[in-house]
Design goal:
With 127 residues, the chain is α+β, with helices and mostly antiparallel strands. The protein has a single domain (3-124), classed as Nuclear Transport Factor 2, Chain: A (Roll). Helices cover 29% and strands 53% of the residues. The protein has three helices and six strands, in the order ααββαββββ. It has helices at residues 3-23, 26-32, 49-57; strands spanning 33-40, 46-47, 61-76, 80-93, 96-111, 114-124. Strands 2-1-6-5-4-3 form a six-stranded mixed β-sheet. The radius of gyration is 14 Å and the shape is globular. The termini are far apart.
């Protein structure tokens, strides 16, 4: 896969992830997440695939807006890619409105002939 094709593929996966988050589409999101997912939040808590999906299904996390830009994709050997991007979102966390502005590092890997998110780590951008 060429570098440009890899970039477009990973960005398409990230757009699909964001669309699923905004729509509250747990099934669509589940297809994009690895069973080995390590999802670290900006507040230093973490989730597995099942706990993240449960929070969404229970309404603990509801995305209202979500913008990803300033993307950089780096391909690694073995069917793995890193996406670095800025993520800005308005969401409800346990019913409380929250605005986040983060730099995020995502690790995507090929599993069963599909790209899946295996790790996510945001870092808050200082105001």
């Amino acid at each position: 896969m060429s570098e440009n094709d890899l970039r477009e593929t990973i960005l398409a996966c990230e757009r699909a992830r964001c669309a699923a988050l905004l729509a509250g589409n747990q099934d669509g999101l589940a297809e994009l997440l690895s069973d080995r997912l390590v999802f670290v939040h900006a507040n230093a808590t973490s989730d597995t695939k099942s706990s993240l999906l449960a929070k969404m299904a229970g309404g603990s996390i509801v995305y209202r807006t979500l913008v990803v830009d300033q993307e950089t994709v780096v391909g690694l050997s073995g069917g793995t890619a890193i996406l670095s991007a800025r993520l800005t979102a308005d969401l409800l966390v346990r019913g409380e409105p929250k605005r986040v502005s983060n730099l995020a590092l995502s690790v995507w890997t090929r599993e069963d002939d599909r790209w899946r998110l295996v790790a996510y780590q945001p870092t808050p951008i200082p105001a």
